Amino acid sequence: MKKYLQVFTLFFAVSCSPEKTVTLPYYDTADFTPKWEMPAGKPFHQIRPFSLVNQKNEAFTEQDLDGKISVVDFFFTTCPGICPRMTSSMGDIQKEFSNDDNVQLLSHSVTPEADSAGVLQRYADDHNVNFKRWKLLTGNKEEIYELGRKYYFVEEDEGFKKDNNVFLHTENFVLVDPQRHLRGIYNGLDPNSMQDLIRDIKILEKE
């Protein structure tokens, strides 16, 4: 519902100010209340430093987010429910931006104790994951869960209140700009929401 309100707000801003360049809001709270400007001279929410590994067992840190537009989700390789559809949606995003080095896709395993780098690589092979464009990440469970809930806000308000003993499972995709700021949240199971995401990535590239 929040995403649809965001889309309406964006449409309203565009229709009322046709002479202005379209921009995306910023988000710094788990309820995804849009902010159209960052406060001058004050720290603003961004993805904190972290250390994970990708499917090739290479280090992946917050520095790999810098300078890139990132689409982020959370999944696990043995998930029989929403994850296959989320992977399919990520595959569509990968195809759309296959030749665009400004865009990267990041899928974090929420069962890192089972999803080693080797397991993620086999999953990548089975799902046509292009390593250049799409990284599958694993590492310390507490770090992954804290990133998901308290920095990406991937479960929105509900997730922010949970601890790491509660399983993290959500269909949400999050859009992150090259400065590690949150710029949108989308339903990975909804084709219309995925079209919104594609549109917003292209808007972000023009900033």
UniProtKB/TrEMBL annotation:
InterPro entries: SCO1/SenC, Thioredoxin-like_sf, Thioredoxin_domain. Keywords: Copper, Disulfide bond, Metal-binding. One of its GO terms (molecular function) is metal ion binding. Cu cation binds at C79, C83, H169. It holds the Pfam family SCO1-SenC. Disulfide bonds join C79-C83. Residues 51-206 form the Thioredoxin domain. Coiled coil: none annotated. PROSITE patterns: PROKAR_LIPOPROTEIN (PS51257), THIOREDOXIN_2 (PS51352). Belongs to the SCO1/2 family. This is Protein SCO1/2.
